[in-house]
Amino acid sequence: MQLRGHWYRGGTSKCWLFDAEDVARHATSREEIRGLLADAFGAADARQLDGVGGGTSTTSKAAVVRATPDGPADLDYLFAQVGIGDPTVELGSNCGNCATAIALYAVQSGVVPPGAGTTRVRMRNLNTGAVLSGTIATPGGSIPTSGLAKVPGSSAPGVPVGLSFHAPWGRTTGAVLPTGSAADKIAADGLILTATLVDAGAPAVLIPADEAGIDLSSMTGNLSEHLPTLVAARASAGLLMGLRKPEDPPQNAVPKVGVVAAPGDYTAADGTRIAADTHDLRVRMLSMLAPHPAIGLTSAVAVSFAAALPGSVVAKALRPADSAHQGRRLLRIGTPAGVITTEVVSDDNGYVSEVALHRAARQLAVADIDVAQPVALTA
């Protein structure tokens, strides 16, 4: 079985993009799509040796894309987080880095014709219903194939993409604050932790780093001794947010889980010393069952939105806001890869209407993937 794939780097992730019509030749239901992608990636093997998976959570991603010229957006996409050493595929979340890649793919493949100066690609995420837009420079209608833009977490340049999340609040759970509170108490591995459970960009549980016993003065470690606590926090938060029932197994992709702390000098993953005055707060997130090397964009959106909620653990970690101007506020987030900046846009009533980031993307390959059929187990 062959499946045509377009391989892109978007921000700090790699994502295989598949045309929905090609996928429909092999899989029509979501359950069949899960199986197809698990086989294509070689998900059952922790090395993903017999497939096209990258063997890490940030390089084991896919999206199925369908042009929708008469719909509410230019295209729809179904995001898939493919398991590693586990033939499961989670379809419960979104990925901003993959959306960055999809925006460039849409222009390069002709899904959206290039404009005379810039081209704006509107994308609807089918997992959550959120609408995003990616803006790409297309001077004179030219289609970019390379660029010089870089993002923290990658030294490789790519085509600059301005990515905006348009009010993707409460898309998964039905409420920005699923519990109705900006801060809750959750049980995690024998601890009772303060947590903000927010559904913005993606469902997320954000915990004060000191309560979890995590020191963010250095972000070079693998958090191995803290993983049981963070995974347990995700499981507890999933129940409170209505993402699963008590009898359901915990998910690894959602809610996103991370720890936050006030700004301070810290050592990034590459050993670089990051000064306290360069950022507004420090954040470290999990990606599936491992520390994220930077921060996922949906997590950055959740953190940015929570920062605007009085009483949240994020708001309490911030200094008094002094960068708001005409409904726009820049939030500098210190991550293991360095500092990324989000722009939080509010309407006249102070309600957050958009979160924007600057990203980069590049096409890596177009390939006909020979999808291995699952091997039947015999006695």
Name of the CATH first level of the largest domain: Alpha Beta
Largest sheet: 8 strands, mixed, barrel
Uncertain segments? none
SSE order: EEHHEEEHEEEEEEEHEEEEEHHEEE
What report would you give on this structure?
It is a single chain. With 379 residues, the protein is of the alpha+beta class. It has 2 domains: 2-167 and 362-370, Roll (Diaminopimelate Epimerase, Chain A, domain 1), CATH 3.10.310; 184-346, Roll (Diaminopimelate Epimerase, Chain A, domain 1), CATH 3.10.310.10. It is built from 6 helices and 20 strands. The protein has helices at residues 20-24, 30-41, 96-109, 227-240, 297-307, 313-317; strands at residues 2-10, 13-19, 61-67, 75-82, 89-90, 118-125, 131-137, 149-151, 154-166, 184-188, 191-200, 202-208, 256-261, 266-267, 273-274, 281-287, 290-291, 328-335, 338-346, 352-370. A hairpin with a 1-residue loop joins strand 11 (191-200) and strand 12. The longest helix is centred in the first third of the chain and has 14 residues, at 96-109. The mean pLDDT is 93.
Please outline what is shown here.
This protein has 379 residues and is α+β, with helices and mostly antiparallel strands. The protein is built from six helices and 20 strands.
Helices, strands, pairings?
Blueprint: E1 2-10, E2 13-19, H1 20-24, H2 30-41, E3 61-67, E4 75-82, E5 89-90, H3 96-109, E6 118-125, E7 131-137, E8 149-151, E9 154-166, E10 184-188, E11 191-200, E12 202-208, H4 227-240, E13 256-261, E14 266-267, E15 273-274, E16 281-287, E17 290-291, H5 297-307, H6 313-317, E18 328-335, E19 338-346, E20 352-370
Parallel strand pairs: 2-3, 4-6, 12-13, 16-18
Antiparallel strand pairs: 1-2, 1-20, 3-4, 4-5, 6-7, 7-9, 8-9, 9-20, 10-11, 11-12, 13-16, 14-15, 16-17, 18-19, 19-20
